[in-house]
Structures are given as C-alpha cells and as structure tokens.
Design goal:
about 90 residues; mainly beta; two-stranded antiparallel ribbon
C-alpha cells in the first residue's frame, strides 16, 4: 500500500458542512469546520495497488446566492502519492 493525499475543491455556490465528508476527510486541515465555496476537501489514505476508493461528501447549495436553474455542479479532484499512475475521477 501507499499513502495518497486526495484533494477536491468545494464547488461554486455550495458549502460542505462539518462532518459531511466520508473516510475522515476534512477542510484543508480543519477537522470540525465547514468548508466554503472554493475550499479544499482533503483525505489522506493508504491505498493498495489496484484498489479503488470512493470519497463522498455532501454539499449544500447556497440559497442566498444560488446558481442559475439547470446549472450542473461539479468538483475537481487530484490524487498525489506514492505511485505516479494514480488516477482521479470528477463528478
């Protein structure tokens, strides 16, 4: 296994509430705080060769400054660690 750091950006017009990231994720080192738009969600994991990991989080849409109707909300993720062949998916 190797240690990987996975980072995902909090999508525009959303906030990720404290405690809503799976697998011990946090907001850029803040363990029990909410993560605002543009903030970085971070996970540090031991991942074995060939293993696939899903790292879910729940985002709340901003009701004060909502996106236009029909907007698709996306996040960008990166993985860095002990193997240069790591891949990430974007949802």
């Amino acid at each position: 296994t190797a240690i990987y750091t996975v980072n995902a950006q909090v999508p525009n017009h959303t906030t990720v509430p404290a405690g809503s990231t799976g697998q011990n994720g946090n907001c850029g080192g803040v363990v029990n705080g909410a993560c605002p738009t543009g903030g970085t969600l971070r996970w540090a994991l031991n991942i074995a060769a060939g293993q696939s990991v899903t790292l879910p989080f729940s985002a709340l849409v901003d009701t004060t400054n909502p996106p236009p109707n029909g907007t698709v909300i996306r996040s960008t993720a990166t993985a860095d660690g002990g193997n240069s062949s790591a891949t990430t998916g974007v949802v």
